[in-house]
Design a protein that fits this description.
The chain is α+β, with helices and mostly antiparallel strands. It has one domain: Alpha-Beta Plaits, CATH 3.30.70. Helix content is 35%, strand content 31%. It is built from three helices and four strands, in the order βαββααβ. A four-stranded antiparallel sheet has the order 2-3-1-4. Helix 1 packs antiparallel against helix 3. It is globular and about 35 Å long.
Length: 99
C-alpha cells in the first residue's frame, strides 16, 4: 500500500542552504518511484501552530520511502535542509486499496 512522506516547514532560516537542498534533493530522486502530491502551495493550519510550507510525496510503500529517505544522496541533501529550516518530517502508511 502507498506510503507518504510529509514535510512540514515551520520556519525558514537560511535560503542559501535551502537552495542547495533543493538542487541536491532533485538529484536524490534518482530512480525512486516518487509522486509529488503537495509542493509548497497555500497551506492553512486548522489546528496547531501555523506552517511556513508543506510538501507531501507518495511512494509505493514504506520500504520504498525508506529506500529514498535513507539513501546517501538524500542524506547529503538533508544536511542542507537541517541547516536551512526547521521541519517536521512524517512517514505515514496509506490505506489498503479496495479491490
Amino acid at each position: 500500500m502507498a506510503a507518504y512522506v510529509i514535510f512540514i516547514r515551520d520556519s525558514l532560516t537560511d535560503q542559501a542552504e535551502m537552495d542547495a537542498y533543493a538542487a541536491l534533493a532533485r538529484e536524490a530522486r534518482g530512480d525512486h518511484a516518487i509522486t509529488p502530491l503537495v509542493f509548497y502551495g497555500a497551506a492553512e493550519a486548522l489546528e496547531g501552530p501555523p506552517v511556513d510550507g508543506v510538501v507531501i510525496v507518495q511512494f509505493p510503500d514504506m520500504q520504498a520511502a525508506h529506500a529514498w529517505y535513507d539513501s546517501p544522496a538524500y542524506q547529503a541533501a538533508k544536511a542542507h535542509r537541517l541547516k536551512g529550516a526547521d521541519y517536521r518530517v512524517i512517514l505515514a502508511d496509506g490505506l489498503p486499496s479496495a479491490g
